[in-house]
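stage 2 :: seqdesign
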């Protein structure tokens, strides 16, 4: 079985850059439990790495990320409630912890978006930190939230690197 996350460290000036590749092209890099765990472990590993300057997050096979793995959601539906918590809530919390870990990275995070990039509103917020895309990439949200019009944050990214929101 292939690794869910490939990490390639390259020299960058006096420091380093890492390329994190979501490696499930057959599912358009849908986030499985294994991939979420690998990304969280990578975030923890680099949290105190002062020599690492930039992380480029990308997807294998021509697509960035199809969002959460439907297989993971289906398996959560069949599990009994442990400690009074719905298993779907636990899955969503893990995604939230991953997104928080990505946002908390001290390094510059670049999402190299190509092809599809699907996810909940919060996931796309990570992409708004800094993204570089090809001329044919789309960032979309799967659903709306209270106080948020469905699809209001849809974005199409161009060829140039975009700055952080609010700057």
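stage 2 :: out
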């Amino acid at each position: 079985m292939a690794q869910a996350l490939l990490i390639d460290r390259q020299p960058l000036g006096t420091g380093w850059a890492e390329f994190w590749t979501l490696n499930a092209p057959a599912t358009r890099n849908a986030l499985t439990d294994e991939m979420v765990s690998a990304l969280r472990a990578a975030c923890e590993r680099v949290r105190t790495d002062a020599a690492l300057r930039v992380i480029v997050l990308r997807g294998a096979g021509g697509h960035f990320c199809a969002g959460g793995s439907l297989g993971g959601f289906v398996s959560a539906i069949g599990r009994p409630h442990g400690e009074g918590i719905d298993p779907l809530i636990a899955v969503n919390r893990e995604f939230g912890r991953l997104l928080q870990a990505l946002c908390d990275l001290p390094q510059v995070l670049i999402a190299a978006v190509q092809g599809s990039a699907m996810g909940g509103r919060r996931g796309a917020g990570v992409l708004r930190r800094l993204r570089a895309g090809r001329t044919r990439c789309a960032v979309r949200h799967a659903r709306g939230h209270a106080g948020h019009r469905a699809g209001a944050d849809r974005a199409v990214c161009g060829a140039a690197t975009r700055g952080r929101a609010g700057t």
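stage 3 :: structure notes
- The beta strands are 5-12, 15-22, 52-59, 108-119, 131-141, 155-157.
- The chain has four helices and six strands.
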